[in-house]
Amino acid sequence: MEIDIIVPEGLHDIKLEQYQKFIALKSEDELFLSQKAVEIFCNVPLILVDKMSYNDVRQISARLFSYFNQKPELIIKKKHGGKKFAFVPNLERITLGEFTDIDSNIKDWRNMHRVMAVLYRPIVKEVGDYYEIEEYDGTDKYAELMLSMSLDVVLGSLVFFYRLGIDLSVAMGRYLEDQTPTTSAQRRTLIENGDGTEVFMRSLAGALQSLKGLVDSPSIPH
To answer: 14 near 67, Cβ under 8 Å?
Structure first.
């Protein structure tokens, strides 16, 4: 049976929502995953995928899976949904609210559209290479729109965020070592009251570890 389908030509043709559906599959059956890949990423009903030749399904799925072995670069600006979005200009200066929403959602691919709603927001002012994005007002405002964001943007931003986070963790770790209280009274006070920077770094380390798993292990058969 001949079926006309449109096969994505790269991560830029795959939506975050599609990847979320695929990554949620719990099966380790490679043939089943190949069928679902064609269904989800090529928008073909599964009943029609079953009517395709075995070789076609395996060839198309192998092509699709090859995209996920890439490590895309950060895409700073992207037109999406009638707006021009841009990546957070300076991750080192994100607010507590932004970090909290990233930290609480980045551990689960089902919530990755909410992470994107933090990392990418509409540009409100732009002069040459300099730009300013919309002030953060929670994930609800753009989370639904981010479901249709292309996967090259999503994975590129996560890889960049992970790498930058590792650099920040190392730098902050050295800073904390240099600032270690010199007396037992100082150390006891911090233990009893909780040091904001140290708590922040522990939380960041947890988020980064989760992100490393997401970036390095996308659960795609090779």
So the answer is: yes
pLDDT in tens, the chain (222 residues): 567 889 999 999 999 999 999 988 888 888 999 999 999 999 999 999 999 999 999 999 999 999 988 778 899 999 999 999 999 988 778 888 998 898 889 888 899 999 999 999 999 999 988 999 999 999 999 999 999 999 999 998 888 877 766 555 554 445 445 544 444 443 443 344 444 444 444 554 555 555 555 555 454 544
Q: For Cα atoms 101, 106, 110, give the angle at the middle one, nearest 5 degrees.
A: 105
Query: 32: phi > 0 → left, psi -120 to 50 → alpha, else beta; which?
Result: alpha
Give the single-character DSSP code of 72.
P
Nearest residue to 173 (alpha-carbon basis) of 129, 145, 133, 208: 208
Write the DSSP symbol of residue 34. Answer: H
How many whole angstroms separate alpha carbon 170 and alpha carbon 168? 5
Q: How many CA atoms lie within 13 A of 27 on its CB side?
A: 12
d(CA 173, CA 203): 13
List the one residue out of 197, 167, 199, 145 whose CA is nearest residue 91.
Answer: 167
What are the extents of the domains in the chain?
11-67, 77-216
Listed residue (159, 81, 168, 73) closest to 121, CA to CA? 81
